[in-house]
Amino acid sequence: MNIKRCEKNPLICPSDVKPSRPDFKVEGVFNCGVARYNDQVILLCRVAESAVGTSEDEVRVPVVVNNNGTDQIDVITFVKSEHPELDFSDSREIHRAGAARGKIVNLTSLSHLRVARSTDGVHFEIAEQPSILPSSEEESWGMEDPRITQIGDVYYINYTSVTPNGPATSLISTRDFEQFTRHGVIFAPENKDVTIFPEKIGGMYMAFNRPVPSAIGGPEMWLAKSPDLIHWGEQKHFCGLSKDSERWDNGRIGGGAVPFLTDKGWVKIYHAADRNNRYCLGAFLLDKDDPSHILARTREPILQPEAEYERNGFFGNVVFTCGCLLEGSDVVIYYGAADDKICRVDIPLQDIFDAMETV
């Protein structure tokens, strides 16, 4: 497969992003939604910020709170030596300590969404301030991993909205990436990795989603239908995990980029991880009139973490996409590398087709 990583990779790094306030540090800019708007390529980037601590023994956690009717960002301080009941070993999360690690107590960073613009798809100018800030009601622990679906002249942005109640999926719309309208939660916790098809199919909107059952079942892909993009039902299991202990897709599967239509059917770029949390990308070919029907799929990854900037970072061995563009005969994938930077890879569409096996 002729995989062409952009020679300018990484395109956007934490050092390129101005923190939203002086006492914050940008830990990562990654997992961006992608769209074309007028003559520009728009990336709606997830920007993760932490609050700067004063010592190695201190972890300061930003959260959104409502103070007398106004949302504001507060900072909770944990002194590690005073909390032996907590596990601070994961750079992303604070857990209950113990032999069986407990539930998440807090995330160590707070993510917001920020627009980056480019006329050539390579050199981006990123906004100096957040484009969309998390709200205390729906995302007090942050907003993550946006996907952008254009329907007519409206861009629908679904994203993971995180609170202590769990990660849900919420929806925002815009016509210009300047003004944004919130539509609230569309998939309750724990459900994430949602991608909405860019047109109705059989008179209904359709979306992939990834519920995470805690007792029976695993983190796998489902399909849902909606008459209005708000109310979703007719859920149907789409694709499960590999049972092979050596496979790249035996840990979790979901999300990826918004599907795009070709003369062969819908192409869906998706992500999967193995049991060691190594994330790769694959592709499905789906029936044009019934996307629940898989026509073919790539058995091996079309992109896996091999470059240094993909193997090393805030959370290494990760390539993770939320959006792509079909540019002529190439699929242009913008992806998060190692959970802290944004990169680009171009892959000929025919090469993806050639790598697929009929199901």
Automatic annotation (TrEMBL):
Entry similarity comment: Belongs to the glycosyl hydrolase 130 family.
Name of the featured protein: Glycoside hydrolase family 130 protein
InterPro entries with a match to the protein in the record: Glyco_hydro_beta-prop_sf, Mannoside_phosphorylase
Keyword match Transferase: yes
Organism: Allofournierella massiliensis
Gene3D superfamilies for this protein: Glycosyl hydrolase domain, family 43
Alphabetized UniProt keyword annotations: Glycosyltransferase, Hydrolase, Transferase
Any GO MF annotation of the entry: hydrolase activity
Short name of any one Pfam family annotated for the protein: Glyco_hydro_130
SUPFAM superfamilies with a match to the protein in the record: Arabinanase/levansucrase/invertase
Domain of life: Bacteria
